[in-house]
Amino acid sequence: MYEMDEAIRKKQQKAGIEEAKEQGMVVFFHMDLVEGIGKDASGIHFAKETLGISGVQSTRVHILKLAKQEKLVTVHRL
């Protein structure tokens, strides 16, 4: 049951991101707050390739450096 709920939630998230991008919006993930996605190079790559995010915001410099390596826009929150 949990796996099905998780799959449905991920599809809804991706649909929401795609709709926002179609409307010309830029989609950022606050990597410090997102659950279920690793806060490492693999997690950032996954978010970019699978979900289609435009950028990352974080309070952690190492996360922002990884996002820049993926050619994502970054915002350093203080």
3D architecture notes:
With 78 residues, the protein is of the alpha/beta class. The chain has helices spanning 2-22, 41-51, 61-69, and strands at residues 28-30, 55-58, 73-76. Strands 1-2-3 form a 3-stranded parallel β-sheet, with helices on one face. It is globular.
Descriptive key words:
78 residues; alpha/beta; 3-stranded parallel β-sheet; 3 helices; 3 strands; 53% helix
Describe the protein's topology.
Elements: H1 2-22, E1 28-30, H2 41-51, E2 55-58, H3 61-69, E3 73-76
Number of distinct beta strands: 3
Q: Which radius of gyration do the C-alpha atoms yield?
A: 13 Å
Largest sheet features: 3 strands, parallel
Q: Spans with pLDDT under 50 lasting ≥5 residues?
A: none
Round the mean pLDDT to the nearest integer and report it: 86
Assembly level: single chain
Distance between the termini: 39 Å
So what's the overall shape?
globular
Q: Strand fraction band?
A: 5-15%
Query: Strands of the biggest beta sheet: in what spatial order?
Result: 1-2-3
Number of helices: 3
Helical fraction equals 40-55%
Secondary-structure-based class equals alpha/beta
Helix and strand string, N-terminal first?
A: HEHEHE
Would you kindly provide a brief summary of this structure?
The protein has helices at residues 2-22, 41-51, 61-69, and strands at 28-30, 55-58, 73-76.
